[in-house]
Amino acid sequence: MSETAEKARGARKQRRGTVVSAKQDKTIIVETVRRKPHPLFKKTIKIRRKFAAHDEKREAKEGDLVVIEETRPMSKTKRWRLVEIVSHSGKLVPAEEVSI
After folding, report:
1. Residue span of the structural domain in which 84 resides
2. Is residue 13 part of a domain?
3. What CA–CA distance (Å, rounded) separates 94 from 96?
4. Which helix (H) or strand (E) holds 9?
Protein backbone atom coordinates (compact mmCIF):
# COMPACT_ATOMS: atom_id res chain seq x y z
CA MET A 1 0.00 0.00 0.00
CA SER A 2 1.27 3.48 -0.76
CA GLU A 3 2.57 5.68 2.01
CA THR A 4 0.06 8.47 1.34
CA ALA A 5 -2.92 6.11 1.49
CA GLU A 6 -1.73 4.74 4.82
CA LYS A 7 -1.36 8.24 6.26
CA ALA A 8 -4.84 9.18 5.06
CA ARG A 9 -6.54 6.32 6.89
CA GLY A 10 -4.20 6.38 9.88
CA ALA A 11 -1.88 3.84 11.45
CA ARG A 12 -3.67 0.62 12.30
CA LYS A 13 -2.73 -1.77 15.07
CA GLN A 14 -1.59 -5.23 14.08
CA ARG A 15 -1.51 -8.35 16.23
CA ARG A 16 0.07 -11.75 15.67
CA GLY A 17 -1.64 -14.81 17.09
CA THR A 18 -2.93 -18.33 16.66
CA VAL A 19 -6.32 -19.27 15.22
CA VAL A 20 -8.25 -21.14 17.94
CA SER A 21 -11.57 -21.37 16.09
CA ALA A 22 -12.54 -21.25 12.42
CA LYS A 23 -16.04 -22.72 12.72
CA GLN A 24 -18.03 -19.58 11.93
CA ASP A 25 -18.68 -18.34 8.41
CA LYS A 26 -15.98 -15.80 7.39
CA THR A 27 -14.95 -15.33 11.04
CA ILE A 28 -11.93 -16.62 12.92
CA ILE A 29 -11.06 -16.33 16.59
CA VAL A 30 -7.41 -15.40 17.12
CA GLU A 31 -5.66 -15.76 20.47
CA THR A 32 -2.67 -13.53 21.20
CA VAL A 33 -0.26 -14.17 24.04
CA ARG A 34 2.04 -11.62 25.60
CA ARG A 35 4.31 -11.90 28.60
CA LYS A 36 4.37 -9.30 31.33
CA PRO A 37 5.81 -9.17 34.86
CA HIS A 38 3.22 -9.42 37.62
CA PRO A 39 2.79 -5.94 39.20
CA LEU A 40 3.42 -7.13 42.77
CA PHE A 41 5.36 -10.39 42.58
CA LYS A 42 7.41 -9.61 39.41
CA LYS A 43 7.01 -13.17 38.09
CA THR A 44 6.51 -13.30 34.31
CA ILE A 45 2.92 -14.20 33.48
CA LYS A 46 1.16 -14.88 30.18
CA ILE A 47 -1.70 -12.61 29.23
CA ARG A 48 -4.05 -14.17 26.67
CA ARG A 49 -6.56 -12.21 24.64
CA LYS A 50 -9.01 -13.38 21.97
CA PHE A 51 -10.05 -11.33 18.96
CA ALA A 52 -12.78 -12.03 16.40
CA ALA A 53 -11.40 -11.33 12.92
CA HIS A 54 -12.92 -11.24 9.43
CA ASP A 55 -11.60 -13.89 7.01
CA GLU A 56 -13.25 -13.13 3.65
CA LYS A 57 -11.78 -16.07 1.72
CA ARG A 58 -12.09 -18.57 4.60
CA GLU A 59 -8.47 -19.61 4.18
CA ALA A 60 -7.30 -19.72 7.83
CA LYS A 61 -7.65 -22.97 9.76
CA GLU A 62 -7.31 -23.83 13.44
CA GLY A 63 -3.70 -23.75 14.61
CA ASP A 64 -2.47 -21.34 11.91
CA LEU A 65 -0.22 -18.44 12.90
CA VAL A 66 -1.78 -15.24 11.48
CA VAL A 67 -1.48 -11.45 11.44
CA ILE A 68 -4.66 -9.43 12.00
CA GLU A 69 -5.24 -5.69 11.64
CA GLU A 70 -7.70 -3.18 13.07
CA THR A 71 -10.59 -2.22 10.82
CA ARG A 72 -14.05 -0.68 10.97
CA PRO A 73 -16.69 -2.53 13.02
CA MET A 74 -18.11 -5.39 10.93
CA SER A 75 -20.42 -6.84 13.57
CA LYS A 76 -21.02 -6.71 17.31
CA THR A 77 -17.65 -8.33 18.10
CA LYS A 78 -15.60 -8.13 14.86
CA ARG A 79 -13.23 -5.16 14.65
CA TRP A 80 -10.24 -6.94 13.08
CA ARG A 81 -9.48 -8.49 9.69
CA LEU A 82 -7.04 -11.14 8.52
CA VAL A 83 -3.96 -9.67 6.82
CA GLU A 84 -1.81 -12.74 6.22
CA ILE A 85 -1.22 -16.32 7.26
CA VAL A 86 2.36 -16.55 8.55
CA SER A 87 2.42 -20.36 8.83
CA HIS A 88 -0.06 -23.18 8.52
CA SER A 89 -0.61 -25.65 11.33
CA GLY A 90 0.98 -29.07 11.17
CA LYS A 91 -2.20 -30.84 12.26
CA LEU A 92 -2.82 -34.29 10.89
CA VAL A 93 -6.08 -34.89 9.06
CA PRO A 94 -8.03 -38.05 10.08
CA ALA A 95 -7.90 -40.83 7.48
CA GLU A 96 -11.69 -40.73 7.05
CA GLU A 97 -11.51 -37.18 5.70
CA VAL A 98 -8.80 -37.87 3.10
CA SER A 99 -10.10 -38.93 -0.32
CA ILE A 100 -7.72 -41.04 -2.35
Report:
1. 18-89
2. no
3. 5
4. helix 3-9
